[in-house]
Design goal:
mainly beta; 840 residues; 8-stranded antiparallel sheet
């Protein structure tokens, strides 16, 4: 104390003159008073540190934000407005597609692929414009001047005279038009080939031999995979082959489906020569040497429908023994993978060992291993538009009455009809090609609603106002999230568009699929209403709206002082609060790995870089060629990420492991429920949106993301972290002080490292063990990045560690999240308000 308040700061009087014999008494009184002032000075500083600065303003932000809140109802208690547990047993939501506000509230617009056409007051399939050439019959009115005379007998009073006069007649008009019309025609057309030439034998520079290998007693099967560019039917397969010189045993050729790694999906029966057989082929044929045409090219007839972008494999084998005079399949060296741009459209394979499986197509030439692919060409069915000349003729009749009256006075006055030049009209029709812009509709598009969080749901029914023209349909589904994905249930007329749950459901999903078989029409939805029968809420979450203090208050290093809530409850209910940072934090983490190890002749157990591993996602390769088989060549502990090989790799052996991970831990203890969005950057650089319950499950309390399926690429998570959680009035942790913090804990006699609730702003004001001051840099050290205090010596058991510090809470915006739970519907809680305090 005296060091902070030295005696020399005081001017002492002349003791002899002023006090005489009383000077000793007066001196002691002054010294006591001096000590009291020094003690008061120190304790005032400590009180200020423990209680914080004076609160100059209290703010009540609007409450609550329904984006995150659920399970609550508005009510009152003793004349005060309050939020409380919802006891509703019925609920409904309505989406009117003419009202964008209801769409914005309920529809997941990121996930919805159908078109929300508010101006048309409906949801429909997306449309697009196409220009087509249509044949249009044009109508034209043409005119023609003619004299129409008809010989007629006219009586002039004494005799008949023959005269030509105009009469009512029918005049034939003949029309003739010629035009070109496109007529569809089916032809054979090359759909894929390697090399990219019509003469496949010209590209052959190496021979591959299928058949039985005597030295290893295994059969060799040659395969070439390819990707189909469009829906077609394979009609002809061309292979570059060299037939055997002496043997007449046939060569077997078939086409099979492939797996996702381009490997043929076939089964081999009776592997040993000569009884080997291959099953799983879509179509198969035999080739004899007399079938080989000019230029060593075999033409094989097929009739096999194939689908666009699907992978298929040409599989070639023979039951004869390999020899210099055996069948040869011609190919190209060093071109094992066939690409079109950056896309793989084919790959060459060889199968010769059941333990190894499919390997790159290869052989050894002069002690050098050469990879490659076979030469082939495939012709499929294609439809082309062939021009055709069309002649159109037709005849019309035009009726016209023509009269011209002329008076004749000699020999008798009479009236006769005389010829007159007249103008006839007739209609002319002809056909011409006209470009027409048409509206088309995409099919198979979805409407998704945001996850529905209500009181526990027992029953749901749908009432939809929709339109389904001919050849269109709409499929409505309710989804129940489970640990393994979503259980989708279809709402249809047979179940009255309703479903009942055996166990109440807390979270529901809803989607509708719009389908059309005629791209000129679309189904549409005008409105949707989902009605629910529910149980009273056992849980509620109230999240306050975000609050940002005035700008003048953010100029300090730390402006927040405390957050608080006023509530009361019955004994069977619990309320706790969390302080949420209202800022989006981004976290990135790879979800797929490629680990590479070198054998040392001893090690069989390898620790993968990341765990847990997604079950079944691993691909283990030895020396880049041999794909190892799980439970045969290796075992793996998916949880710990440990790979154990059955046989010890030799020195210089290379082990490659590609795998996806099962779970990601976010660098935060807890996040605000419903605040996160997750996307995936694929290895190709594309950004793919991921969706909760379909692609992943999120544990908000632990800050963990678990995946439903293996993923490849870089995960990006955006979320709002919770700064402090589980605050309640019962343990006197509310109000939560955010300015000057006093933190205490009881030591266990062993722990040296203690983590503060917040990262401190340096320096720390005070650290004590059982009220004894500790010196920073001597008795303890502080990690101002993690907020950890590290003691040189662990505090003794049951000793009280006390820290007074200013936390680094520089958050411009905060929220308060209140979570309630109750044991029965008779229990209740009343939440009146939330308060944020700060110092301006």
């Amino acid at each position: 104390m005296s060091g902070q308040c030295p005696e020399k700061d005081f001017r002492l009087p002349d003791w002899t003159k002023a006090y005489g014999d009383q000077r000793k008494v007066t001196e002691e009184m002054l010294r006591s008073y001096h000590r009291a002032l020094c003690y008061l000075k120190d304790e005032t500083e400590l009180i200020h540190a423990k209680t914080g600065p004076q609160i100059r303003d209290t703010l009540l932000p609007p409450f609550a934000d329904d984006t995150y809140s659920y399970g609550h109802a508005l009510g009152s208690r003793q004349g005060r407005d309050a939020y409380m547990f919802s006891n509703d047993t019925n609920a409904s939501i309505t989406i009117d597609f003419s009202d964008y506000e209801s769409v914005k509230e309920y529809v997941d617009e990121r996930k919805t692929t159908a078109q929300i056409a508010v101006e048309e007051e409906k949801l429909r399939l997306p449309d697009y414009q196409v220009t087509e050439i249509k044949k249009v019959v044009e109508h034209e009115v043409r005119t023609e001047k003619k004299i129409v005379e008809v010989e007629t007998q006219i009586w002039d009073g004494t005799k008949f005279e023959t005269k030509k006069i105009p009469r009512e007649v029918e005049i034939p008009v003949t029309h003739r038009d010629e035009y070109i019309e496109n007529v569809p025609k089916t032809i054979l057309k090359p759909i894929i080939g390697w090399p990219e030439t019509q003469d496949i034998s010209r590209g052959s520079d190496i021979a591959w031999r299928p058949g039985y290998k005597t030295w290893c007693k295994n059969h060799v099967i040659i395969a070439q995979t390819f990707r189909v560019p469009y829906d077609t039917t394979i009609k002809k397969l061309y292979l570059a082959l060299k037939p055997p010189k002496r043997s007449n045993k046939p060569l077997h050729v078939g086409i099979a489906p492939t797996d996702e790694k381009y490997r043929p999906k076939i089964k081999i029966k009776r592997f040993k020569w000569p009884d080997m057989d291959v099953t799983g082929l879509l179509e198969r044929h035999k080739i004899r040497k007399e079938d080989i045409g000019q230029g060593n090219v075999a033409v094989i007839d097929f009739d096999l429908p194939v689908k666009k972008d699907q992978l298929y494999a040409i599989v070639i084998w023979t039951k004869s023994e390999q020899s210099s005079s055996n069948w040869r399949v011609l190919g190209i060296r060093n071109k094992n993978v066939i690409k079109a741009g950056d896309r793989i459209i084919g790959r060459g394979w060889m199968y010769w060992n059941r333990r190894t499986g499919w390997e790159h197509l290869s052989r050894t030439i002069k002690r050098r291993k050469v990879k490659g692919s076979i030469c082939f060409r495939i012709d499929g069915v294609a439809v082309i538009q062939e021009p055709k000349k069309v002649v159109k003729e037709w005849t019309e009749y035009v009726r016209k009455i023509v009269y011209d009256e002329v008076k004749v006075e000699y020999p008798v006055i009479k009236t006769v009809l005389v010829p007159k030049e007249v103008e006839y009209t007739y209609d002319f029709y002809y056909v011409r090609d006209v470009p027409v812009t048409l509206t088309k509709y995409s099919s198979g598009m979805y409407l998704y609603l945001k996850p529905i969080k209500l009181n526990p749901v027992e029953y749901v029914v749908l009432d939809a106002t929709d339109s389904r023209p001919a050849k269109t349909s709409i499929e409505y589904q309710i989804g129940i999230p489970t640990s393994g994905g979503i259980d989708w249930r279809t709402l249809k007329p047979e179940n009255n568009y309703s479903t009942t749950f055996s166990r109440p459901v807390k979270v529901l999903l809803f989607r509708a699929k719009l389908i059309t078989e005629d791209d000129s029409v679309t189904p549409s939805i005008k409105s949707l209403k989902l009605s629910f029968r529910t149980q009273p809420a056992s849980e509620m979450l109230l999240v306050s709206r975000a609050f940002t203090p005035p700008l003048s208050g953010i100029l300090c290093a730390n402006v927040w002082a405390a957050a608080d809530s006023t509530y009361e409850k019955t004994p069977g209910a619990q309320i706790n609060a969390s302080i949420v940072l209202n800022e989006d934090v981004m976290f990135s983490h790879p979800v797929s790995y490629h680990d590479r190890y070198k054998g040392d002749g001893i090690t069989r157990v390898f620790q993968l870089t990341y765990a847990p591993v997604f079950p079944g996602s691993e691909v283990v390769a030895l020396n880049e060629e041999e794909i190892l088989e799980r439970d045969k060549d290796y075992t793996i502990d998916y949880k710990l990420g440990k790979l154990t090989l059955t046989r010890t790799p030799r020195e210089r052996d290379q082990i490659d492991v590609e795998y996806s991970i099962r779970q990601v831990d976010l660098p935060v203890d807890e996040i605000l429920e419903g605040s996160s969005t997750i996307s995936l950057e694929t290895p190709e650089g594309k950004i793919k949106q991921l969706y909760e319950y379909e692609d992943y499950y999120e544990d908000y309390k632990e800050g963990k993301v678990s995946f439903y399926k293996p993923l490849q690429g870089l995960l990006q998570v955006v979320y709002k972290p919770i700064l402090v959680s589980n605050l309640s009035h019962e343990d006197e942790t509310l109000p939560a002080r955010l300015d000057t913090q006093r933190w205490t804990t009881r030591a266990d006699g062993e722990t040296k490292v203690f983590k503060l609730p917040y990262v401190p702003v340096e320096p720390i004001f005070l650290v004590q063990i059982d009220d004894e001051d500790q010196v920073e840099g001597v008795d303890y050290f502080v990690d101002y990045t993690t907020g950890e205090i590290i003691f040189n010596v662990a505090p003794s058991i049951d000793s009280i560690v006390e820290v007074i510090y200013t936390p680094n809470v520089r958050c411009p915006t905060l929220r308060l999240a209140l979570r309630g739970n109750r044991t029965s519907e008779q229990e209740q809680a009343y939440i009146y308000d939330t308060r944020f305090t700060y110092r301006p």
